[in-house]
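A further point concerns the way the authors explain their paired sequence and structure data. Each protein is reduced to its one-letter sequence and a matching series of backbone shape codes. An entry of this sort, consisting of the sequence and the corresponding backbone structure tokens, reads as follows:
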Amino acid sequence: MSETLAPASSIDPADVARFSAIAAEWWDARGKFAPLHKLNPTRLAFIRERALARFGRDGAARAPFTGLRLLDIGCGGGLLTEPMTRLGFQVVGVDASDRNIAVAATHATEQNLAVDYRATTAEDLLAGGEAPFDVVLNMEVIEHVADPGAFLRDTARLLAPGGLMIVATLNRTYAALALAKFGAEYVQRWLPPETHDWNKFLKPKELRAFLSGEEVEIEGPFGVTFNPLTGKWSRGSDARINYMMVVTRGADPAFNSPASSSALPAARARPARRRRPGP
């Protein structure tokens, strides 16, 4: 897959090119991706907590998620992919940028980690009949795609019965415009200019609306905030800027447990109670 991909439902060629240009810096904790390195502990803790509860795994185990299949969509250089592999997941890391995938694969090899990295898209996984995933990580990527609704539905359809998807993105508020866009890119210079387009930030109610026809349940938003005094991120009730949503697919009665889905073919998920769209 070349860097000049024909536009598809989840590809914004300008964003792919923008991140490809700085792909070599993914693992530089003081470089252009420093904000993600600082955010990672908070993201990892939330993912681990939710997955332990969802699949009834032992948090004291060295690799508690052995036997479960995980998709990291828009994986970039693998900042989340590698920790998920160490936790026992069988991980597929997907990104539309060849350069991101090359950097991620090289780093994983250096760490002696087996990760299935692919330069492809969510819709191509579906079209190719990809086996369903127990967990889908959809982290800080939906604000960079051309059609967020189609992208979110495609990723939800990659969930196995009983599966869990975590979506992290930026809220389209004036607070996010001031701090996540102008503050981060032009004042603090944490990110290269034009990394984000405020018009593509998404409100929680819009994510719910995108999935209104899917047999899933949605929780959130769960706010994530940055403390400039400590330089650390934490979870909280303030979702005006960064937030996460949790999407789950109901377990089919034919499955003994959500975890068993990774070893069985996909089945129709039973209808799930849907929440009303909210703020």
User: Anything to note?
Assistant: The beta strands are 69-73, 90-95, 116-119, 133-139, 159-170, 216-227, 232-236, 242-249. The chain has one domain: 13-169+200-263. The chain has eight helices and eight strands.
